[in-house]
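pasting for ref
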Amino acid sequence: MKSMKKILGITLIAFILSSCKSDFNFDAYSADLFLAENVKTPAEMAVEISSCTGDSLEESKTEILSLFSTGSSAKVVDCVNKGNHSMLVVSLDAVIASVDEDGQVPDVEGFDLVLVRRVVPDQEIGGKIYEVRGVRPVMNDSFIERVKMLMKQNLQSLTFDDVSLKIILNNDEREDVLVSGRFLWVDGEPFESYSRQKLERRQKLELKFSKVVSDLVLRMKAPTVVFVGRLK
C-alpha cells in the first residue's frame, strides 16, 4: 500500500510539473488590418503559476517578465484564480504587420507577438466589391525559445494542449465588415465554417482557435485564421 501511494504521489507531481496553461489574447481593430504600415495593438498573456500569494508570486513575476523583449513593454496587471489554477496576467504590445515583396515581415524583431496581415484578392459579394485581409497570429521564434528554456528549468514542457489563442476583433469602420474563419469558436459557439458573417460597426467578436492552430504557431508554421472584408 505504501509503495502504491508513493507511485501515485510521483505520478501526481509529474503531472503538475508537465503542464502549464498559457492563454494568448490579441485585440485587433478592423481598420488596422487594412493599413500598409506596422501598428501596435494590445495583447495579453495569462500564464499558470503555483500561487497568487506569497514569495512565489514575486518570483513568478520576475521569471515571466524576463521572457519578453523590451519592445513588448510587458507588465503584470493581475493574478487571478480560475478553478484550481492561478493565472498571472501580463499586458503587452503586439504588432500588426504586413508581408513585404520577399514574403518577409519587416521591423518586428522587438515584438514577441505579431498579427501578420495578408492582402487577399477583392471579392464580389451581393453585387458589392469587398477588399479582404487575412490574419495570421505569429510568435517570435526567440520568444518561443525563451519560454521553452524557462519551462525546462522548471521541469515543464511547452505543448499545444496547454496553449490557447484568441483574437478580439473590434469593428471600428463606418460600415459593417464581413468575417470568415474555419474550425473556431465565435463568442463561445463552435463553428466548422464561419463564412462572411456581418460584424456591425462598434461591435466586437471573440474568436478562439483550435489546438491545431496552437500547434502550428508553436512550430512557427502559423496559418491564416480569419479573413475580414470591407466595402471598397
